[in-house]
Every structure is written in C-alpha cells, then in structure tokens.
Write a structure and sequence with these properties.
Largest interface: A-B, 54 and 54 residues
Largest sheet of chain A: 7 strands, mixed
Radius of gyration of chain A: 20 Å
Structural class of chain A: alpha/beta
Shape of chain A: globular
Strand content of chain A: 15-25%
Oligomer: homodimer
Strand order of the largest sheet of chain A: 2-10-9-8-5-3-4
CATH architecture of the largest domain in chain A: 3-Layer(aba) Sandwich
Number of helices of chain A: 12
Chain lengths: ~350, ~350
C-alpha cells in the first residue's frame, strides 16, 4: 500500500472522491456498457453539462473528449491551420506544441521567451497571416503563467485569428473570458485529479467554421477526430470511436463534486495554498523564486530554485509520506515543482510547508 | 448494483480479475505516478513482455500503446502510405478503415464482399502499386472471419506491400504467423476484458523503415504518434504523451493472468464455447447462421439471423441477469451478436445457451 501524498505536477494526486467513484464504476459496470447506448449518453451529457457549469462556458461552445492534451495540439493544427500558426513559446510544452505545426507541414511563427520568463502582450505583434494564436496559460515546465487579462489583450489586436489557450495544468482555476478566446483545453490528470488518458477540448463555432472551410477547399483535416466528426457524434452525446468511457464517467463525477463545493471556493483555496508556498519560498534560505515577475507566477504549479535537489528533499520527506516534483528536464536538480491542485487540500499543504520549514529551513 | 452478465461484443464483460487489479491500482497509486518514472517503466515493460509471450511475437516486432484501434487505423495510413492502400472490405469496420485512407488524401483500392460474406485470397489480385494491404481477421459487425491460413496467402503473391491485420475483437484467439504479416493491432475492451481507452499496435522493422523513408522524402507522417516517435520513447519503456497509465497497468495484469492460464487453454475454451453457440443456432427454430461459409464463421463474435429482435430477447433474459448484443446498425432487429471472449466463461456460456433454449427454442 502506497500512502504517500504526491505534490507532483503530473500525473498528480487523485481527487479524494475518486476511489469511491471507481467503486461505483465497477458496481454500475461502466467499463462494460456500450458507447452507443443510453447509459453512456447520460454519462457523456453529465460530464459535458458539469464542465459547462463549472467553467461558465457559453452555449455556443462545444466540449469534446479526446485522449490527451497532446492529441488536442495535433487536432488544433490539423483542423484549424491551412498555412500558418503563431505560438508564444517559453518552455518545453509550448515549444512542443509549435513543433507539431511544422511537423504537419505548416509554418509556425514563434514569439520566444527564456525559460522562467513570460510574455507582455502589449509588446507582441502577431503577423497578419497567422491563422491561429497559441497561448499557454500555465507552462508546467517552468511555472510561468499568462494572466487572463493578458490573454484577453490578444483579441483586440487580432480580430481574425483563432485564439487557443492551453490550460492543461490550470483549469478550473483561471476564470477564462470565453468572449475573448476561441478554444481552450485541459487534461484530466492535472487539476481534475483523475488517472491520465483523457483530454477535454472546448471550441466555438469559429473553429468549426475554419475546419469546414478547409474541408471545402479539399484539404485533409484528419479522420475520426476532425471537428465535424466530433460534433456529428457529440450532438448525440457520443464519440466517433470507442472512448475512455471509464474516465469520462470519473470526470463527470469529480466535476459534480467540484460544482457542489463551488468553483469560487476552489479558486480561493488555490490562492490561499499558493500564498503559503510562495511565502515559504520567500522566507527560505534554500529556495528562491524561479519566476521573477510576481504577476506571472503560476497559482497551480509552484516552481522554485533550490540549493537541495528534489531527490534529496524527497529522501527526507519520505518518512513523512510526502513527495514533491523535481525541476523539468535539465532543471531536475536546480529547481523543484510543487503541485497546487484541488486534490492537494489546504490541510495537506499546511503540513507540507510546516515539514519543509522544519527540514530545510 | 448491476449484476447482469453481458455477452455483448464491445465494450464487453470485464475479465473477472479486473476488479481486484483496479483495487491494486488504487493501493499502489498507479493513477498518480509519473509516466517518466521507474515505476511506470516497469509497468510498461511488464505489459510489453507479457503480450510478447502471450502472442509469441518475434523480437524484431515492436509493441506500442495508443488510445484506440480507431487511432491505429489513422496512424497506419499516416506512417506507412505515401500514395496507395488496399483494403478487403466486408463490413462497417473494414469500410471505415478504408475511408481513413481517402480522408488523408491517399488512394484506397477496395476488394468488396457483401455483409456476411468473406474473402477467398486465391481469387484476389492486389494492385502492384498498393503499399499496404489491410485485412480484418474478424469483422465485428458481421461475424465474418478471415482464417489465419488465408491471411498467410497474401504474402506469397505480394512481397513488397506491408500487410496489416486488424485483430480487434479476436486476439489472443488467432495464432497469427508473424513471418507472414508486418503488423497487427487490437483494442483492450474486447477479448482482453478491460475498460476501453487503449489500443495496442504491433509492428515490424519494415513498417518502421517505411515511416522513416516517408520522413526522409519530406512527407508529414504526423506528430507525437509517428512510428519513430513511438519507438524513441518506447525504447525506454515510455510513451511520447502522458498515456492511459491506469489501463496499461490493468492490461499488464490481465495478460499475466492469461499467461498463467495459458493461451492454449484460452483458445481451446474459445472453440468449445463457439461450438456450443453454433450448435444451438443450428438446432434452433428462431435463429440461423448469418455467415454461410462455415470456414469463415468467427470464433469470438457469434452472429445469427433471428426471428426475435435482440431487444425482445434481452427483455426475456433480463430476469436472469443476462444480455446479448443486437445486430449491427441496420441489422439491429434481424441479427444478434454474442461475444465469445475470454471474460465469458465456459460455465456462463452453458448457462446462456441453456436459458436461450428454454426461452426461445
């Protein structure tokens, strides 16, 4: 039995209700039912409606279930780009997204910021030919965020381009303004506290129109996971392929739990826990802020420079059944990353901070 | 609590050990661990080694994990076809696979047989320009199979083309000859008795070479799920994206169970249960064989013409906690489909046949 509490940024701690929902899934034979039957349609609708309520998504946006956020990157390029995309790149994940565009034979304009740095939209000029603008709300590799008010500035200067917001390790925390963006997406193993294997893609009619216009021009936009194919089945609360039914069910249940708790409470707790961590980092002799600009520090992925490697920290935390994340890739030994997701409770975060203070000053 | 036994062809009954493996997954925090860590690599390797043993896969074949067999159809065309594919089409699933080729801008040659009919390889001439040959071992929609000895005939006349065998609702039953094919694939919610959300793709070096040659020519073959990308991570027992870790774990455990039981026993039981069902169909007043040619009748998806609709049959089976599948799409009322998967035990099949004899003659 593994009793450790994981403060890692992905995959991450399961939301505390997941075990009981897994039991219900077994009892109700959710892994057995047909994905073309009424029981599945009800599960799909429940997940869809719940997400719409939680994130306050307008009725003219569609919500689709895919296999990962990585897949969604690919589908965005396939469905919505004929020639040119634009990407704000400041870490490994935003970089990888931009590479998908070139690997699919498109031209990717890149606005680059160094690792640990962010963007200042007033200074950014998106080329007129860019069909889509790809922004990352939360760079999971570096802990740099792009505040919602900054995201909203892109629409003003770029009326035509479709705006995509990668909100993978952030939603439901950010209060996105759906009148200023065309699409957002997340994967369930981060802030929704579920096992990995499901990505959720939220798109408006402008994205649908773009995909349909490419189709009309005779361009290939993919096969079963094109936007028209997703919508054609989605209308009936179904998916084109046999999906990860089990995870759609678990998501529907955790979203029910989130809605019962209230997204405002989740957001307030997220800010409270982030403050605990950042206050500790500020006061510590061994840690320092990895993201200089306080406005751009993530609320959900807390990253700090460290004098002690995550491996050594975790050795000392082990007897207390806790673990934090190491820095990303080459920052493995010089940074730590701590998840601040809804599954990490206020009490648990207090315990972690207290223990880290004791052990590492 | 749903206590019904499902004899449906997909999704299907969970293998009886799945509930206990789900509990272990929760206990071991399989939904929480990093997909870049040692614990995941061990799970990946265990699944991979187990499948290799179970299906007697030669060491020069690679085994990759994707999200569904539907996704694998798409990746086959993207990775292994520059211009032209060839498909034996005799039902909805083989037809859909061929459509993926045209939707991706390739030319698909189609050898067609009517619904409920199969193929006679001696009579088939594959055009020389076809780069891949797509065969379906088991058409889940109609219950028509292509025996392994028939599959093996294609290689003789077609040395160059890559041969792909869709074995979705059949493996581990068919004893495929890997010296005569280049690739096969299945999804876990059929004969492996798991929740849906994972497809397994088995490919040899010739498929890898083809993908690499397309890349060298400057063709796009996709992004994260290209064969080179899958291999690059697969070498380290990892996947390019955050995968369905939970399902890879469950698969590794069920494959362990299969290997303990022995694939020969599973195959013998499959034949025994199929005989029970076909004997009953032959003797019944209400059912008749949907597949005329006895050689082409599936061992895992038993399809019969029926005078009583599956809906009416299931109403009468309901008090006995059993359900069978309806015919596919427009055959909904005139055919029934009964799963004969490893999760459907010999005892359960005896009970089903006995009850059907009582109720429907």
């Amino acid at each position: 039995m593994n009793k450790k509490l994981y403060f890692t940024v992905g995959p991450s701690e399961l939301y505390p209700t997941v075990a009981q929902h897994v039991q219900s899934a077994l009892d109700e034979k959710v892994g057995v039912i047909s994905h073309r039957g009424k029981q599945f349609e009800a599960i799909y609708k429940n997940a869809n409606d719940g997400i719409r309520t939680l994130l306050n998504i307008p009725s003219d946006f569609h919500i689709f279930f895919l296999s990962s956020a990585t897949e969604i990157w690919e589908r965005i390029i396939e469905n919505c780009v004929e020639h040119t995309s634009f990407h704000c790149v400041n870490g490994s994940f935003s970089k990888r997204f931009s590479e998908f565009s070139t690997e699919l034979g498109k031209k990717a304009f890149i606005e680059k910021a160094d690792f640990g740095k962010g963007f200042y939209p007033d200074k950014i000029n998106v080329p007129a030919e860019a069909e889509i603008i790809c922004l990352t709300y939360n760079e999971t590799s570096s802990g740099v965020s792009m505040p919602v008010e900054d995201i909203n500035k892109f629409r003003e200067k770029n009326k035509e381009a479709l705006i995509f917001v990668d909100a993978v390790s952030a939603l439901p925390y950010p209060k996105l303004d759906f009148s200023k963006i065309d699409s957002t997406f997340f994967s369930v193993q981060k802030c929704f506290g579920l096992p990995a294997g499901l990505g959720v893609w939220i798109v408006n009619q402008r994205c649908m129109d773009k995909a349909n216009s490419l189709l009309k021009k005779g361009k290939s936009i993919g096969t079963y996971h094109t936007l028209p194919s997703l919508l054609s089945k989605g209308k009936d609360n179904q998916t084109p392929e046999t999906p990860n039914v089990w995870n759609i069910y678990l998501l529907s249940k955790v979203v029910e739990d989130f809605n019962k708790k209230g997204v405002d409470t989740i957001r307030k707790e997220t800010e409270l826990k982030a403050k605990m961590l950042y206050d500790y980092i500020e006061s510590s002799q061994n840690f320092s802020f990895a993201v200089e600009d306080v406005r751009l520090r993530s609320f959900t992925t807390i990253v700090a420079n460290t004098k002690i490697s995550a491996a050594d920290i975790n050795k000392k935390l082990e007897p207390f059944d806790m673990a934090i994340g190491s820095g990303y890739s080459s920052y493995k030994d010089t940074q730590v990353r701590i998840s601040n997701f809804p599954a990490n409770s206020v009490e648990q975060m207090e315990t972690l901070v207290k223990k880290m203070k004791e052990l590492f000053n």
